[in-house]
Amino acid sequence: MKQKSRFLAFLLALGLLASLAVTPAAAASLSELQSAVDTAQAELTDAQTALDNAKDAFDSAKAAVKDAEDAVDEANRAVGEKDTALENLKRRAEEATEEAERTELEAQIPAAETALEQAKTEAANKKAALDAVKNQVGLEEKQTAFELAEKTVEEKQKKLNDAKAALEEEKNNQANQNPPAVPTGSDLSWPSSVDFGKLGKGTTSDLTRTFTITNRTSYDMVLSASSVSGYTISGASGTLAANSSTTVTVRLDSTSKTGRYNGTLTVNASFVNGTGGYYPFTIAIYAEVVEAGYSLTVSPTTKDFGKLAEGYEEKTAKDAAVTVTLENKGASSVQMNGVKGNDHFTVTAVANEYITLKSGEKTDYKIAPKHGLAVGSYTDTITFRTQEGATVSFKATVVVEKKLAPLTVEPAALNFGTVEEGYTAPSYQTVTVKNNTDRAIILTQPSSYSYEISTLSQTALAAGGSATFSIRPRTGLPASQYGGVVEITGGGEKASLNVQFSVSRPAGPSSFNDVAAGSTFAADIAYVSQKGLMGGVGNGNFNPQAPITRGQLVTILYRLEGQPAVSGLGFSDVAAGSYCEKAVKWAAATGITNGGTDGLFKPNASITREQMATFLYRYNQHKGYFAMKLADLSTFPDASSIASYAKDAMSWANGSGLINGTGEGRLNPSGGATRGQAAAILHRYCVSIGQ
């Protein structure tokens, strides 16, 4: 190598002598090498400036995309909250024991469903906005430019290192020094470790670390480095000139999987022209890939608290508490920000409700059933939230069992339905009487005027014992309501069996002056008038040919429903205190009517055939009578004129035999309906579907 360097210096010297003057060969060679170092240094500076600019552009694009992603996450969380609210509302309505409470809860369901759909639409809009931002900022192009700039810096750094090495080599060659046999630890400096810290899964940035190895001696060295699994190492092998340093670059190959990526880099150093071998030294490399962004886990994820007795004490609930542990599995810190969904359980932070968790840190919560829960089964999905939007859920279940009365009957209520006068005897139903005390009881035979009751299977009941009897309504009862209570007594205790039975009169001829016996709608008008669904118009008349209005029809359906309590807002064109005010509010709350596009109900407007079908269709859905036959309306020449909102309703009404074609074979969906036609349709509905 010394001979080659001297030969190059000699050639350069000859050229310089020929053109200018006589200059020593060594000086000319050193000048050329120094110029190469300066040029490489300038190129590295330019490349570093370009890298800084590319990094700024890349960071700005990432920030824009991150903001849009956060907006999408927030919208998705809103969807989850609206969905949970709707499910809780439906569940509470199903579990409600009071009719008024259930009606009020069911009235809130349409608004909750609308809120959920709005949240879903907002989430879709945010997702579209995210895609637009990605296209606009060109994140991938800026990332590619950034990585290319990084590579260019590495190449320029290597070029500079090589130029410096050549310069130092020539200096050492000219010095004509002989190195010691083997380097020692004091001849070199290097770091003990390289730590990447925690990186988010899938990240493609911040994957490079650098460090320097310095040759403290006046002799050139040769470095050779081992490979490290999972990493690419550059700059740790090659010649290290006297009194100079080399920059070593360590790059993590992939962040596609979570886990620890620890390794050891071994470097062997020997003197150029040394005679005693090499000196080895090691550098530990650490990295951990964790879930990207914000990520929480909870352990355990579920808990069944079993059964609690009705009226349990507060201490019993607290003693049942379970400890759950939350851990931040993400790359970023999170601040806890309360819980939601704990309707029937208490959630208490062991440390701090608003604690900040760094990556890998944990915190505990105590979860217990609330005191005073009524009899029933309760399942809560408890969601722990952070200020950054990360969530994790815990499912808790508990059953509160009813504390039994000393004497009980099963079932507690029987309903034998409604029959017409002249009915045949209904079938017997069996009732079980149970002694829930810790003593024997002698039962008294129950009796009732309206019901036939068989002899008790036994009257002497041991503690925990039971007896049975059968019951049915007597035959020949006149038209009336026969609801009441049958009492079973014994040993000073009492149990009550609620029974319901009614007898009605068959629909007979109408008593209205303008409805002749045997006329088209006579039987229908008699039925709806006796059911209390429709009345006369005054002076003993029914006026069957008069058009029926929208307000009159919802009033009829309101009567069919039993005229429940109403709440909520009506429509501005329905006067307070008017005959249909409560009916319209009820219809709006149950979704039977939404009013017109102008926000009005128009109670005095004549109802069309398709509007009547729609009101009945929605009422049928409200009652839960979902078994229906949908007709093919394509055979009617005017089927295409049905309004879009009424297509399914008209198909159902025709398929169910409620609304048939006109004499001309048309549906006439926008045509009006008379009071007589309405009576006929309601009669068919009550008898065939909604009785």
Structural write-up:
- The protein is of the alpha+beta class and 691 residues long.
- Helix content is 35%, strand content 26%.
- The chain has eleven helices and 29 strands.
- It has helices at residues 2-19, 25-95, 99-137, 139-175, 314-319, 522-530, 550-561, 581-590, 609-623, 647-655, 675-690, and strands spanning 188-189, 193-200, 208-215, 221-225, 231-234, 238-240, 245-252, 259-260, 263-271, 279-290, 296-299, 302-309, 322-328, 334-340, 345-349, 356-357, 362-369, 376-386, 391-401, 407-410, 413-420, 429-435, 441-442, 451-453, 460-461, 466-473, 480-481, 484-490, 493-504.
- Strands 2, 4, 6, 8, 9 and 10 form a six-stranded mixed sheet that branches. The protein has a five-stranded mixed sheet with strand order 12-19-18-14-16, with no helix packed on it.
- A hairpin with a 4-residue loop joins strand 18 and strand 19 (391-401).
- Helix 2 (25-95) runs antiparallel to helix 4, helix 3 (99-137) crosses helix 8 and helix 6 packs across helix 11.
- The radius of gyration is 44 Å and the shape is elongated.
- The N and C termini lie far apart (109 Å).
- DSSP strand (E) fraction? 25-35%
Overall geometry comes to: elongated
- Report the C-alpha radius of gyration, rounded: 44 Å
Q: What's the average pLDDT?
A: 86
- How far is the first residue's CA from the last residue's CA? 109 Å
Q: Compute the number of helices.
A: 11
* Number of E-state strands: 29
Helical content stands at: 25-40%
Please give the largest β-sheet. Answer: 6 strands, mixed
Helix-and-strand structural type: alpha+beta
Which residues sit in consecutive blocks of at least 5 with pLDDT less than 50?
1-28
